[in-house]
Amino acid sequence: MSLTARLTLLFACVLTVVLAGFSWLVFRETSSRFHELDELLLQGKVQLVAEAARNSRSEDELRGWLATSMPGHAGLYVKVLSDTGDLFEHRDLQLPAGLAEEFSGAGKAKDWRRTAHSFHAKRFEVSLGGNVSKKLSVIAAVDTRQHTDFLDVLSMKTLGYVCFAVVVGTMLGWLASRGGLQPLITMRARAEQINANRLSERISAQSWPKEMRELANSLNGLLDRLQSDFDRLSAFSANLAHEMRTPVSNLLTVAQVTLAQSRTSDEYRSTIETISEELQDQARTISDMLFLARTENMHALPSVQLVELDVESQSLVDFYDVTASEKALNFSVRGSARVQGDRLMIRRAISNLLSNAVKYAQPASTIDISINTAEGKASLAITNRGEEIPVASQASLFDRFVRLSSPSAKDAGGLGLGLAITKAIMRAHHGQVELRSLAGANTFVLEFEKVVSLSH
What we know:
By secondary structure, the chain is an alpha+beta fold.
C-alpha cells in the first residue's frame, strides 16, 4: 500500500471516529433535553390531578371535576383508580392494550415505544379532600411521538451526513496527502534521473520542507560516497588499462620481431626468457592490483588476531638483511606493541615501507624502526636517511601508480602500488599512515587505533 493510501485511510478512520462521536453527543443531548420536556409536561398533568383531588370532598366530585377539565389536554391519558375500581379514565391518547397495567409501583416513570407510538407515563397516588386515609391511584401518560419522530429523522440525517462527510473527507484527504507528499514525489523523480553519467547532481536540501532536509542530506551523502567509489573505480580501470597496454605491446613487438625471420635456438630461448620475465612482472602487477581492490572495499578483516609489531618487524628485517647488505645498511628495532588485526596484512604494510626504505636509503646508513604506544594507540615509524620527498608530492604519494620523478626513484623501479596498498591496509584496520620528510630523513608512520596490553 502506498504512503498516500495509508495517510488517506488513516485520515478516513480519524474523520469517521470524530464525526461519529460528535453525532452521538448531539443525539444524546437532544434526547436528554426532550426527555426533560416530557417529564415536565407529565409533572404538570400530575399536579393538575393532585390539585383536583385535594379540592374534591368525594369521588363523585373529583370525577365530575376531571370530566370537565381533562378534554382540553390533547395527547394525555389519565386513569384514576380507587378501592371500588376505576374512578375516571381520560383517553385522549390511545395506549396499547394492557400497557397501563404494567406499572408495578407508584412514583415510577416509564417510556414505551411500540410500532409508531411512543409514550412517557407515570403512576402516582393522591389523597382525596385532604383525607390522607383515602388514597387514589393515578396513571398518567403523555404522547412523545413528536420528539421520537424528530430524533428518528435527526439520526437518519446525521447518519447520512456522516457517510457523505466521510466520503468527501476521504477524497479531500487523498488530495491533501498527495499534495503534502508532492515534495517526496519530486525528490523520487529527481533521484531517478541520477545515473552513472550524472552522479555529480545533488538534491538541494534548502528547497525541501524541514522534515525532508535530513533525508535530502542523507541522499546527498550517499551520492558523494557513490561518486567517490565510482571515480576510484574509473581511475582504477584507467590505470589498469594503461599499465597493461604497454607491456602487452612490448611483448607483441618482441614476438613479431622474433618471428619475422629465422632464429637460432639460443635466440628463441632468449626471447622466451624475456617474455617470461615480463609476464612474471605483469602477474605480480595484477596480483597487487587485485589485493588493493579487495582491501579498499573490505568491510571486515579476513581474520583478527594479536599481532606483535616488534616480532613482525624483526622478522622482516631478517628477510631484507641480504638486500640491505648490498648497500651496507644497518637496522635498528626499538620498542614493542601488540595490536589486533590481520597479521598477514599488517606484515605486508610493514614490508612495503621497509622495502622502500631499503631502496631509497643512503648507502652505509641505518634504517630505524621505532615502535611506541601512547593514549591507547600504537605507532610504528620507519626512518631512512635519503633524499627528502618534496611537500608537493607527499599528498599524492599514496595514490596508485605514483612514482617520484627524482633519478633515484626512477632507478629504484617499482609499480607505485606499495604505498597505496599500505594506505588501504591501514584504513581497513581503522588506522592511518603518515609521511614525515625532514632534515634528510624520511619517516613513514603506521598508527593503529587500538593497542592491546602486553600483560594479556
